[in-house]
Amino acid sequence: MTGIVKKSFDAADETRPFEDGKGRLDLVSGARGAVGRAVFEPGWQWSKHVKPIAGTDSCQASHVGYIVSGHMKVVMDDGETTEYGAGDYMEVQPGHDAWVLGDEACVALDWTGFTDYAKPSG
């Protein structure tokens, strides 16, 4: 086993496109699990562009990550809301919708919630 691992999101182990070409999820896998980089294009919304893939009423992933660029709004099923922007650390529990704010893609890195994200259910 090597003590150093190097991977690139530009040559991801797996890429999952979102509906209507509104972005993608790039996953790299390591001994400690997968890390994802999502590119959410302007106009992207979970309930429009991932819900048809996931088959759940709201996003059921738990996210711990970092916003690299762009802006996103997250609304929990109970109505709690926040906005994230470039440089923000995020923690989001299951049961939410989200969408891109503005005309810039939102790029996010996630260490916990992207393993099964945008993966067909069943």
From TrEMBL:
InterPro entries: RmlC-like_jellyroll (IPR014710), RmlC_Cupin_sf (IPR011051), UGlyAH_Cupin_dom (IPR008579)
Span of domain (S)-ureidoglycine aminohydrolase cupin: 65-96
Regions that span the bilayer: none
Stated name of the protein: Cupin domain-containing protein
Origin species: Streptomyces flavochromogenes
Taxonomic lineage from the root: Bacteria, Bacillati, Actinomycetota, Actinomycetes, Kitasatosporales
